[in-house]
Amino acid sequence: MVSEGTARALLAKLAAEQAESRVPSLVAAIVRGGEVAWFGGRGRVGDEPPTPDTQYRIGSITKTFVATAVMRLRDEGRLDLLDPLGKHVPGTPLGDVTVAQLLSHTGGLTAESPGQWWERTPGTPPADLLAALGPETARHRPGRRYHYSNLGYALLGELVARKRSAPWEQVVREEILLPLGMRDTTPRPRPPHATGYAVHPWADVLLPEPENDHGAMAPAGQMWSTPADLARWAAFVAGDTGEVLRPATLAEMREPATVEDGDTWTRGYGLGFQVARHTGPGGPRRLAGHTGSMPGFLATVWADPADGVAVLWMANTTAGVRPLDTALLDILAEHEPPLPAEWRPSPVDEDLLELTGPWYWGPTPYVLRVLPRRGLSLGPVNGRGRASRFVPDADGTWVGLDGYYAGETLRVVRSTGGVTHLDLNTFVFTREPYDPAAPVPGGVDPDGWR
């Protein structure tokens, strides 16, 4: 739990937002280390204050559940992210758009479905939606740019349904929600739940917003959830995946595949998750999560996997809430900055200990360090240039985890006299600059340095 002073500061921010933005009810929570460290609620749902068990509609946060279901199919080998949609959902004019492009909103599809404003009207069956698609459904060349598409996630929901031979919402519930203990996240509301309202811009009066089953478009924003359930999802996004998804797959989903705002790069999109950069009192953060909006509701969940902290908020208003998520994270960082983990010595295998220290790529000095579980890091001594971490492979090599050498193979080459050099995807690293005793490609001038 947070301290009393921190809780008061967080509640003060929440209360000010609820009052100044005229929100019928507003809830928020901080998740730290997988647990709810603070919860706050203001306003009324009916005649009662909202609680951690009050349902709100979460809109496009639904997309993160659908994306997780797709990635589970990928991990099982039932599809490839480079597969065209037509391989799994044939008969649409969008058959060449790939699964990865749909996940990252880079498929070039129109943002909305054909027909009426889908968020305020009853939905149609998937077959009717597919039949209504035409050449105008494509707005941009696939892969050219980021263009958010609710229609794209409707198609991904249909893909999940066809691959599992079950409705997408059943797949999400059985494979994701129930294993995570999220029993109060449902396609339609259950009591107690908030009613969605529009707030008049110039008077303190409310207008109830419609709520419908959106049929084929439901994967884009159908779900309802509670602060307690959404806190469990925030912990999932931060890295506590349970048995639902491999941590490496989640990390892949959180990698930026495209950016929304060009050169400034503060917001982007991965494979089903929005990603963002934010700098506050705690320093720079890389956040992953999703926002959600439907008529009468707003919601947001962001997680910082680096320190296991997440924030969420939910409101029953159509518009008008200011950025509350980063403000609450900043308050937490200002009042309770995270402490670095205590350093403790740890054993290192002798064969790795001899690899540590300086290596040279040509004349450029690098340093190799040992990481836990036989991992390695290799980077320039001056900190500028290509650097990567490596994890051991079963064949005795190492595979790049990030940076320039992500996915590339690092080999330690030995002879009877010991280690001669490192081979990193054809680049040779030697113990001395251009060591003539090592097989430097192109050879070393026999006259040496002069």
TrEMBL record:
Annotated Beta-lactamase-related domain residues: 15-322
InterPro entries linked to this entry: AmpC-like (IPR050491), Beta-lactam-related (IPR001466), Beta-lactam/transpept-like (IPR012338), DUF7586 (IPR056008)
Domain DUF7586: 348-431
Designated name of the protein: Beta-lactamase family protein
